[in-house]
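We close this part of the discussion by returning to an individual protein. The amino acid sequence and the backbone structure tokens for this protein are reproduced below:
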Amino acid sequence: METAVTSLTPEQHRALDQAAAWIARLRADDVSAADREEFACWLSEDAGNAAAFDRMLVLWEDLAVLHALPIGIPGSTD
């Protein structure tokens, strides 16, 4: 990532939090057309929202890789 989390503005932190919530919502089994429309509105409201969403997608994909690693996680049932 190009900037450290500690150097982000409050607005950037808020956008990242919202982006993470949108990723979770959009991946839910019960996501609706209204959810997708609301997401599109949020995304177009501010260029910072799109940047935050892209940043969180990269993190989400990085975290998915962890699941494939051949290591045991203490307390995990996988």
About this structure: The CA atoms of residues 30 and 74 lie 31 Å apart.
